[in-house]
Amino acid sequence: MRKLLFQNFVRGPLTEPAPAVDDAALAELAGQLERAARQRLGRTLSIREVDAGSCNACELEIHALNNVVYDLERFGLRFVASPRHADVLLVTGPVTQNMRMALERTYAATPDPKWVVAVGDCARNGGVFSGSSACVGGVSAVLPVDLHIGGCPPSPVALLKGLLALLETVK
Ligand code: SF4
What we know:
By secondary structure, the chain is of the alpha/beta class. 40% of the residues lie in helices and 15% in strands. It has helices at residues 2-11, 23-41, 57-64, 97-109, 121-125, 156-169, and strands spanning 46-51, 78-79, 88-92, 95-96, 115-119, 135-137, 147-149. The strands form two sheets. A five-stranded parallel beta sheet has the order 2-1-3-5-7, with helices on both faces. Strands 4-6 form a two-stranded antiparallel sheet. Helix 3 (57-64) links the parallel strand 1 and strand 2 (78-79). Helix 2 runs parallel beside helix 6 (156-169). The longest helix is centred in the N-terminal third of the chain and has 19 residues, at 23-41. It is globular, with a radius of gyration of 19 Å. The N and C termini lie far apart (67 Å). The protein binds iron/sulfur cluster. The site of iron/sulfur cluster has 13 residues, from helix 3 and helix 5. Iron/sulfur cluster (SF4) is lined by residues 54-55, 57-58, 92-93, 120-122, 127-128, 152-153.
């Protein structure tokens, strides 16, 4: 037992180091996003995230946008607690039967102009949950979708690129 404890002590963690983030490219991308939001909306972008039935891995990537590496708020982009304060609904997962009404109410509570972004392969068509009796289908089965960001899950940089592509379509 003492030998095992000693081995664990000297061996160090087994986890792999996190991949390096290109901070200059990230700052450029997030800066473009902030400028596009200010030009097209006259203010920064407010995002409400809705988990309509995901496995939560998409949420982990979305949450990473707020961690110390990505720190989205330094560019003025922020997640809000209420759909009444949101410009964009980021919706993950297949829409489950249980979440359908909540998603519809969230959409109804979001003021115009508003955009719906479906995040992840499940949000496109149900993904690995497609065909389940517990699922309605992809987000477009319930709400009008303005943009789909693919991936299982999409990376934080892919999410930023998707939001920028969305704003570039806004007149
Ligand atoms: S797209 Fe992948 S990561 Fe996202 S909810 Fe579906 S299975 Fe999970």
